[in-house]
Every structure is written in structure tokens, then in C-alpha cells.
Amino acid sequence: MNVLPDTPIRSLSVNNRKARAMTDFKGKPHGNLGRMSLATDGKYLYFTWVEDFGNIWVMDVAWE
Predict the structure, then answer these.
(1) Rounded to whole angstroms, what are the CA distances from 50 to 18, 42, 53?
(2) DSSP per residue over 1-64, as a string?
(3) Residue 3's pLDDT is what?
(4) Taking the complete model, does pTM exceed 0.70, yes or no?
(5) How far apart are CA 25 and CA 3, in angstroms?
(6) What per-residue confidence (pLDDT) applies to 63?
(7) Which residues contact 33 (CB under 8 A, 6 or more apart)?
């Protein structure tokens, strides 16, 4: 699931059907929620965050 920095995960009350933001992704311009990663213990919301960053290192090998 791609997440935009201004799109929080929200909870929805079953009593009054009002939504409230539970996360703030500001400062995280890249990344995704991990697949099937949302969980709660009734107090906290747990999720994995995946960032696909990679570096390619290139060097010349000098044989002696």
C-alpha cells in the first residue's frame, strides 16, 4: 500500500462514525506500509514500514 505523506491511517468510531487520524507520515516522503502489517493490542497500532533504497557501488580493481 503506497502512503502519501499527507494521508494518515484513520480509525472509525462504530458509535458516531467519526474518523480520526492515528498516524502522521510527514517527513517520510518514501515508503509503503508492509503487506498485511496492521495490528493492534487495543492501545497501540503496530505496522511495518518498508523503504526500498538501494545503492550501487562501482570501483576499478587494480591488479598488480
Answers:
(1) 29, 24, 9
(2) -B--TT---EEE-TTT--EEE----TT--S-EEPTT--EE-SS-EE--EE--------------
(3) 59
(4) no
(5) 8
(6) 82
(7) 1, 3, 9, 47, 48, 49, 50
